[in-house]
Amino acid sequence: RQADVECALLVLGAGPGGYTAAFRAADLGLDTVLVERYQALGGVCLNVGCIPSKALLHAAAVIDEAAHAADYGIAFGKPKIDLDALRAHKQKVVGQFNKGLAGMAKQRKVRVLAGSGAFVSPNEIEVDDGKGGTQLVRFEQCIVAAGSQALKLPGFPWDDPRVMDSTDALELAGTPKKLLVVGGGIIGLEMATVYRALGSEITVVELADQLMPGADKDLVKPLADRLKKQGVAIHLKTKVVEAKAQKNGIACSFEGESIPETKLFDRVLVAVGRVPNGGKIDADRAGVRVGERGFIDVDRQMRTNVPHIFAIGDIVGQPMLAHKATHEGKLAAEVAAGEKKEWVSRVIPSVAYTDPEIAWVGVTETEAKAKGIKIGVGKFPWAASARAVGIGRGEGFTKLLFDEATHRVVGGAIVGPHAGELIAEVALAIEMGAEASDIGHTIHPHPTLSESVAMAAEVYEGTITDLY
Ligand code: FAD
After folding, report:
1. Among candidates 392, 61, 374, 413, which has minimal Cα distance to 212?
2. Suppose 8 and one of 30, 48, 189, 289 were both cysteines; which one would form an S-S bond, judging by CB atoms 3.0 to 4.6 Å apart?
3. Does 186 sit in the ligand 1 pocket, CB within 6 Å?
4. Residue 239 near residue 256, CB atoms below 8 Å
5. Residue 329 Cα: closest atom of ligand 1
6. Mean pLDDT in each 10-residue stretch from start to end of the chain (468 residues)?
7. What φ, ψ does residue 194 adopt, rounded to 5°?
């Protein structure tokens, strides 16, 4: 069959990984086609992930900040929430960047094909526009960036709109009186933060023995304490065993160590993880090996087992984060364009944009213990930061982990407002191989929360013993 379109590089999927790869490749001179099943570019992150969730979390933060201002003598009234306007704001932010991406593709002469792509051979992908039309695209090289989607736990009545995944929750169809959040990971807790601020009564159930499994326990405590104070019911080591749609709500039954009192919910959000789309692109027809769980194995240049086919982003594994996808996308494009490069970054930061925020990077204490890595810890409590106390957030802390042999920083974690912004310095320090004294000798502006990073290094060094 004659190809309808020919190109040097086909990028499958226009999420942060895919559009970054396509734009970089085009900048490096490759004739690039970008295939995306949805009209709007930007993938999960822009359309139903990072960006809309953060727009809504900002609204939640404003509501909470106003409520807490009473602590220092400024009382606002009960917020009047116009859900339609809030939804429109979120959509406006997303739309602005959809438009921006379309413009960036056009500027670079990246040809965007709308439709669902699947391999038909190692050098061909068929794109189905869903309206009966198909196009055969022949490529010299390909970057698979088809991402992931929410895991739909079996046993839930998914045909009932009161059962939601994160995409549904971001639609903001209403403010349920009672909301059950299944899964106390980053996505579940961010959405819980939004809906609680909007007025929902929240119950969270989590299978593990802590919220946000993966982060050190001490980091999660200030968040759990605050959520509890705000009336969020948290049930650990507990799972939903049945969820039934009834006229008056979704009736759930639970199993575990902490069974919620409430059994009937107006809505249920299931946020128990994401599954890669590796099984949905007929990868076998190109000879690309897909693992059992749907992830595609790649080497340090993002090549699959078929050398001219690369894969990047959520589809290649954890952590499923946008900044990992973009970094991998850029690398794959550069390698495809002939540059001799490979993955060199040491660490990938994780951030939960909850209140307080939780951010960590590199080795965690839990991991160090499990792997027998000898580390030393420098911890600076924000109660000793006048700036943190001034904003009413003395419960936060900054923690740095050092290799005991070299005093080099190997990990760090921060809990408190703006932790997501602050963690970037720790990531840079790790990449640069900084020692505790390098961080301590770097003069940080006063009074800022960023000082806490230098202070944590100094606590480790023993150069400050008194926290003033
Ligand atoms: P995706 O963004 O999943 O994009 C893949 C694209 O491929 C999609 O547009 C899809 O439509 C398209 N596609 C798939 N199959 C085909 C096909 N066969 N043909 C054509 N097109 C196809 N990460 C962060 O770093 N920070 C955050 O704050 C954050 N918040 C999040 C909040 C939520 C609610 C969710 C769900 C996720 C969040 N993430 C966050 C994760 C982040 O969205 C993902 O890690 C990121 O989008 C992965 O990018 P990607 O390019 O690999 O894939």
Report:
1. 413
2. 30
3. no
4. yes
5. 51
6. 97 98 98 97 98 98 95 94 98 98 98 98 98 97 98 96 98 97 98 98 98 95 97 98 97 97 97 97 98 96 98 97 98 98 98 98 96 95 96 96 97 98 98 97 96 97 76
7. -65, -55
> What is the CA angle 186-189-161, rounded to 5?
110
Distance 210 CA to ligand 1 centre (A): 26
The verdict on whether omega for the bond into residue 319 sits within 30 degrees of 0, i.e. cis, is yes
- Residue 38, token pair as written in the block: 């949805």
Expressed in angstroms and rounded, the spacing between residue 323 Cα and the centre of ligand 1 is: 11
- For ligand 1, say whether the CB of 147 is within 6 Å of any of its atoms: yes
Q: Note the pLDDT of residue 468.
A: 53
- Regarding the beta carbon of 321 and ligand 1, being less than 6 Å apart is answered yes
Specify the pLDDT at position 464: 83
Q: Give the residue numbers annotated as catalytic, written as ranges.
A: 446
Backbone angles phi, psi at 34, to 5 degrees: -115, 120
Distance 314 CA to ligand 1 centre (A): 7
Helical packing angle, 50-68 and 83-107, nearest 10°: 140
Q: Strand 163-164 to strand 148-150: parallel, antiparallel, or no bridges (unpaired)?
A: unpaired
Q: Do β-strands 32-36 and 5-12 pair in parallel, antiparallel, or remain unpaired?
A: parallel
- Cα gap 419→449, rounded to integer Å: 9
Residue pair 371/332 in contact by the 8 Å Cβ criterion: no
CA-closest residue to ligand 1 atom 12: 13
Tell which one of 41, 44, 129, 361 to mutate to probe ligand 1, the residue whose CB is within 8 A of the most ligand atoms: 44
Task: Report d(CA 161, CA 159) in Å as an integer.
Answer: 6
Pairing of strands 111-114, 32-36: parallel
Could you tell me the distance, in angstroms and rounded to a whole number, from the CA of residue 15 to the centre of ligand 1?
5
- Contact yes or no for 313/17 (Cβ under 8 A): yes
Q: What is the chain's alpha carbon radius of gyration, rounded to the nearest angstrom? A: 24
Distance 426 CA to ligand 1 centre (A): 26
Q: CA end-to-end span of the chain, whole Å?
A: 75
Position in ligand 1 atom list of the atom nearest CA 44: 2
Alpha helix positions (H), 184-271 = 186-198, 217-229
- Residues ≥6 apart with Cβ < 8 Å to 77: none
Helices assigned H by DSSP within 215-321: 217-229
